[in-house]
Amino acid sequence: MKAVTIDTLAPHIGQRVTIRGWIHNRRAAKGLVFLVVRDGTGLVQCVVNQKDAEPDTWLTAESLTQESAVAIAGEVVADARQVGGVEMQVTRLELIHKAVDYPITPKAHGVEFLMERRHLWLRSRHQWAIMRIRNRIIMSIHHFFQEQGFLQMDAPILTENAVEGTSTLFGIDYFGQPAYLTQSGQLHGEVMAMAFNKIYTFGPTFRAEKSKTRRHLTEFWMIEPEMAFYDLDMNMELAEDLLCRIAQDALKDSSVELEVLGRKVSALQSVRKPFVRISYTDAVDLLNSDKTADLLSTHESTLRTEQIELEKERAHNSSVYGQAKKWKKRRLDARAIEINARLDEITEVLRNIPVWRSSARSFEWGGDFGGSDETLLSWHFDRPVIVHRYPAAVKAFYMKRDPEDDRLALGMDVLAPEGFGEIIGGGQRADDLAFLEAQIEKHQLPREAFEWYLDLRRYGSVPHSGFGLGLERTVSWICGLDHVRETIPFPRMLGRLSP
RNA sequence: UCCUCGGUAGCUCAAUGGUAGAGCAUGCGGCUGUUAACCGCAGGGUUGUAGGUUCGAGUCCUACCCGGGGAGCCA
Fold it and tell me: What tens digit of pLDDT does each residue of A243-266 get?
């Protein structure tokens, strides 16, 4: 009998097939056992009917536990009630391995509990959807660049020089010589662009920042295109095209996964060219403006209304809890968890709003935007916004100056909508030898370590640009997740190195 | 490093300073179409740790440990 995967069951309606997988959930009625089986490609309900099944199969079905491994033979039948439209009528069931006391039960769990069991958590439905979308995004990125003649090339992970100070780098011992894990492949990317014209790197990046927020990992994956003969405008257009492609591919190919996650797709449908492009100087004006203050006030009153309604609901639920039936209690418990989590979130935001308001109102030209400023900017628009031409003082030494205003660097950041924050940072690179030499001296960087980089400006220097896209933040945005820790199979962050 | 919230059964959470409870999970029983199935019964606790206040502390105070998310920094 043919062994198939769950995602290919539909064409086999009316046929007998075998599937192999793990028990995701089990329900029983008299003479019937309903098994929800998972094989990594999808879920399917398998029905064991005592009067049809062999005696061994029935006994096995009755005693199956969550995550036990099984091989199941039966007929594929159409059933409109099921997700995917099919279920299996089981004729034979073989137990491959019996799992005992699987810790992640079909109910709500806390973050710490799940993170300690990340190796098992990955089996659950939400994680299935997220990892498949991550894969979809990775493939979109490769297709996008490959179709346009970019060469995928790899920057080294072990590096000798600290590009922007050693405080955010993980240091290691390289046979007695200090070395670091890379925090960006950009400088090597520039080398490769001068050799191959248009390239992109796709690799891991490490930051020893002691950040404990929903946007930070210490190890994350970054995509860094670097293009010879590209100026800032061409660079921004490339970033726009890339993000549009990612959003559209996700809508086209990951609708099931997005639905599992409850992602509002309208937010992704509005990701279309042209994005909003705003200069840093205009962005500062916008932050200072009444428009931003009004936005905050509106948001604040909306939250206060929601807070009052939730508190009312909580009081009402707790007053009826005593008389409630068991199933109703269970529902009330689940709702209470939701209400409390949302109330915590609202309390946190309401506490922050006065700080956000004053920091936006009094933001002075010359500083770099904080997380709250970026969030506020992105709330003004329904699609990604590109902020360009930052003060040179807050940007990296290798950025080209704006020929029209020497105080500005030709840098750009792309902020994802809905407050997901910065997902792209990049710009046009300095291509003048003397300027770069002066910058290296000004930033007190070790000149010797940059000689190879300076060679690019000695031998056929041309205008060139590039940017870095953070994969996990992008996945987080597309999936509508409130934290990046679920966007990578094994997150590495402050206080988390296992499993 | 700072700010802030939290730690109660295997899990998720309740509990005016006054006898520690519920749901899920587990075990047993019931139900022939369940969708986190449902219904009944049972077992399950050094309330993070160490002190203190009190007739009495899960609850109040102090210190420490662990975790959440925010600031700084950043993708």
Answer: 999 999 999 999 989 988 989 899
φ, ψ of residue A95 to 5 degrees: the values are: -85, 120
pLDDT tens sequence across A323-378 = 677 777 777 777 777 777 777 778 878 888 888 888 888 888 888 888 888 888 98
Q: Which residues contact A237 (CB under 8 A, 6 or more apart)?
A: none
Can you tell me whether residue A251 is helix, strand or coil?
helix
Q: What is the pLDDT of residue A7?
A: 92
Q: How many CA atoms lie within 13 A of A358 on its CB side?
A: 4
Calpha distance A25→A37 (Å, rounded): 7
Chain B: bases < 7 Å from a protein Cβ: 1-2, 4-5, 10-14, 22-27, 30-40, 66-75
Could you tell me if the ipTM is greater than 0.90?
A: no
Q: Which residue is nearest to nucleotide B39 (CA to C1')?
A: A326
Q: DSSP secondary-structure letter at A213? A: S
Q: Which nucleotide is nearest to A63 (CA to C1')?
A: B27
A133 CA vs B17 C1’ separation (Å): 52
CATH of segment(s) A2-97: 2.40.50.140
Strands A171-174 and A177-181 come out as antiparallel
Question: What residues does A158 pair with on adjacent strands?
Answer: A181
- CA A124, C1' B69: Å apart? 24
- Which parts of A281-381 are beta strand (E)? none
Task: Give me the sign of the Cα torsion angle A317, A318, A323, A326.
Answer: positive
Structure tokens given for A201 = 């790197």
DSSP A66: T
Beta bridge partners of A469: A223, A424
Which residue places its CA closest to the C1' of nucleotide B4?
Answer: A348
- Which residue, A470, A465, A460, is CA-closest to A399? A465
Predicted confidence (pLDDT) per residue in A184-226, tens digit: 899 999 999 999 999 999 999 998 888 888 888 999 999 999 9
The reported pLDDT for the residue numbered A466 is: 97
Cα separations (Å) of A435 from A321, A403, A406, A465?
A: 71, 13, 12, 17
CATH of A118-275+383-486, one of 2.40.290.10, 3.40.50.300, 3.30.930.10, 3.40.50.620: 3.30.930.10
With tokens 């099944």, the residue in question is A53
Residue A314 burial (CB count, 10 A): 16
Between the alpha carbon of residue A349 and those of residues A49, A292, A331, A338, the distances in Å are 53, 16, 27, 17
